[in-house]
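[Help] Beginner question about ligand-bound structures

Sorry if this is basic. My supervisor gave me a protein sequence and a SMILES string for NAP and asked me to "get the holo structure". I don't really know what that means in practice or what format the answer should be in. Inputs are pasted below exactly as I got them.
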Amino acid sequence: MKAAVVDRYGPPEVMQIREVPKPVPGPGEILVRITATTVNSGDARMRAARVPRGMKTMFRLAMGWNGPRKPVGGFEAAGVVEAVGAGVTKFKPGDRVTGSHGFKFGLHAEFALFAQTDALVATPAGLSDTDAVSVLFGGSTARYFFAAGGLKAGQKVLINGASGAVGVMAIQLAKRAGTQVTAVCSAANAEFVRELGADAVIAYDREDFAARPERYDIIMDNHGNAPFARVRHLLVPGGKFLQVIGDLGEMIAGKFTRQVVGSGKDSDMVSAAVYGELLDLTARGALRPVIDTVLPFTRIAEAHVRVDSGRKRGSVVVTLP
Ligand SMILES: NC(=O)c1ccc[n+]([C@@H]2O[C@H](COP(=O)([O-])OP(=O)(O)OC[C@H]3O[C@@H](n4cnc5c(N)ncnc54)[C@H](OP(=O)(O)O)[C@@H]3O)[C@@H](O)[C@H]2O)c1
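Answer (accepted):
No worries, everyone starts somewhere. Holo just means with the ligand present. The predicted complex, written as structure tokens, is below.
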């Protein structure tokens, strides 16, 4: 089968589509023929070894020094069950499925194996594979941070980096929760985030939101340029700062600050229950998938170029025949 392989960290051109052995499902395993996958901000970070300040050595020790120890990336996918191993009762060949097996990666390929216990769920009828896969990364991240930050109806929420994969889901989930949302993005995306439900928009290229008088119950930073130290004065007493991205110093400091909510365990986000909920909302039209670009698998390097721009709206999806 074909897979997008990265031998050494670098620009999108390091990615090569190559022939690799097709996996065979063992007991309890499900072989999925992938039809749609994403190139998300995490995939682009992995390919380039591009991590926040202070994390380079830790990243390379964990993931591989000169190149990724897992050379085929890809965090989430949708597709069709091709075959199942002994003892699999959850799915049968022909079932449409969507999911992730987290940091095992390997989903930028024609086929992948999932364990029955992985976060793999049935794709709702009527929901395309492209739409299904596009909501997982941002939706599960926003959902985790909002739950950990105690988001509740009536609150005022500011979302910095509101038009990326996490931001577009955060706006919609925060509105569903009955909050008042202020979105921070470029002026070019102002109308777009309003359409998603934002009550107010602050264009970062026209104005510094941190200099305004409004106060918030929750501030979510999806871009890394609004750390707690810069925005804490905008929080009401007891308000929460959702540190979706931060450098090593900020993350360590956050652990000692009750107002800062940091990343959770993988299982908080890569979960069948969470994915099932997100797909159900999307199938019912209650959550709008936001897809920046769809490219065929043969052009996956171009998908990485788009993600590297830092300007994508929502998700970049790659499709396989
Ligand atoms: N902690 C976790 O568990 C976790 C989970 C998922 C993701 N993350 C991290 O969260 C971050 C966001 O992920 P993502 O997938 O949403 O990223 P993304 O889709 O690549 O974000 C792109 C968006 O960033 C916006 N942006 C660019 N410059 C900005 C600025 N100066 N101020 C505010 N917004 C700006 C852009 O909006 P404009 O075009 O309007 O500028 C664009 O829409 C990434 O760093 C990712 O690694 C962390």
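A couple of things worth pointing out: The radius of gyration is 19 Å. The chain has two domains: 2-135+289-319, 137-265. Feel free to follow up in the thread.
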